[in-house]
Amino acid sequence: MELKLCESDYRFMTVIWDNEPIASGELVKLCAEKFDWKKSTTYTMLKKLTEKGFARNEDSTVTSLVPRERAEKFASEHFVEHTFKGSLPGFLAAFFDGKHISEKEAEELKTLIDGYKKK
Prior knowledge:
Layout: H1 7-19, E1 22-23, H2 24-35, H3 39-51, E2 55-58, E3 61-64, H4 68-84, H5 88-96, H6 103-116
Antiparallel strand pairs: 1-3, 2-3
């Protein structure tokens, strides 16, 4: 299954992830508040994402079928692969260009990297 979400799909799924299980009527209200969407727009988006296998609308209750973490992992891997030819160091160099991080952040990153090193 292709887990790629465009920006509007991701924002919509965020509302579902943050509130599930959620009644479809309540989802319409939240999307009207957050995105200024009409009822028809919310239902069109919901239909699209149910057809793609990201969400389910059963008995007017909406739930996700793909966990947020899985979608975010796919998106980040796809971005690094597509933009930086899979080079994590290339991504980090571009990300940090002109920025500074605290000693604490540097230590957290070192600890994270050490945890993923091949042994």
